[in-house]
Design goal:
The chain contains 9 helices and no strands. The chain is mainly α and 278 residues long. It is globular.
Length: 278
């Protein structure tokens, strides 16, 4: 098997498996969730150390290590968000009837600390790898951040599939930030721009005479971008978005504790007064 094909298969497997693991861990008991957060935090710190160690390596092994390390840092953020540990100052559903500006601001407050944490981690990775020859970890994290931000904006503006099945019970209020419609004007821009970048990366990976480490690194990052584009299409196509991770969702729901009562949707003024009183 060629180095290019192996890198693509590795990226696809780790994307599919790591997503399923995060979904599974998030539906375990409270004690298991706390333990998984502790382990994930330790892995995230180890991943930052690994990124610093591999930044100067120009080998295929260094590219794989940097790629996996960036995914571990990203996985820590995803788990911390889905468990409700790092979300935002607003933890209640949005009231109906908000104008678009207020709706955007209140939706941002739902995920604000999470977004700031991602930017901080990204800046840390950039600082660790600044000027180094191995930029696979940085490229991977940037692709994940840009494409996940695009996905969130598309969910806010409206898509066919909201994937609300992925949300645990304690984050059901996030559904009030989404809008269901066939497609929105941002979607074709997001997909087209990402596809152009992907085409350029594929062309670069297939350039004759390119060192094997560069081929592997470019293929890993390009595959992650291709999977992110696929995730965008799954938001608008009439397909079951949970099919690939049904094993994790089923296993998690069998172990999920009883869901707390759903939050009451309050008028905006009363809701803000309640938040300030707390």
């Amino acid at each position: 098997m060629s180095e290019l094909a192996l890198a693509v298969l590795f990226a696809i497997f780790i994307w599919w498996f790591s997503t399923g693991v995060v979904l599974l861990l998030n539906h375990l008991s409270r004690g298991a969730v706390v333990l998984s957060l502790l382990i994930s935090s330790l892995l995230g710190l180890a991943a930052l150390t690994a990124l610093a160690h591999t930044a100067q390596q120009t080998t295929a092994a260094g590219a794989y290590c940097a790629f996996t390390s960036a995914l571990l840092v990203w996985g820590w953020h995803e788990l911390s968000f889905l468990t409700g540990w790092i979300t935002g100052p607003r933890k209640t559903a949005l009231p109906p009837g908000l104008g678009e500006g207020q709706r955007f601001w209140q939706s941002l407050r739902v995920i604000l600390w999470h977004e700031i944490g991602i930017v901080a981690a990204g800046l840390a990775i950039v600082a660790i790898t600044w000027g180094a020859p191995n930029q696979v970890g940085t490229g991977t994290f940037v692709v994940l951040w840009v494409m996940r931000t695009s996905a969130k904006l598309n969910l806010f503006l409206g898509v066919r599939n909201l994937s609300e099945q992925f949300l645990p019970a304690h984050l059901r209020y996030l559904e009030s930030c989404f809008r269901r419609r066939p497609v929105n004007l941002l979607f074709p821009v997001s997909v087209t721009a990402a596809s152009v970048v992907l085409a350029l990366m594929v062309a670069a990976a297939r350039s004759p005479g390119l060192p094997s480490a560069a081929v592997v690194g470019t293929a890993l990052v390009a595959t992650m971008l291709a999977l992110a584009i696929l995730e965008h299409w799954l938001m608008v196509l009439p397909l079951d978005t949970t099919a690939l991770w049904r094993w994790a969702l089923r296993a998690g729901r069998r172990r999920e504790p009883a869901a707390p009562p759903r939050p009451v949707v309050l008028p905006l003024e009363a809701d803000e007064n309640l938040v300030r009183a707390r």
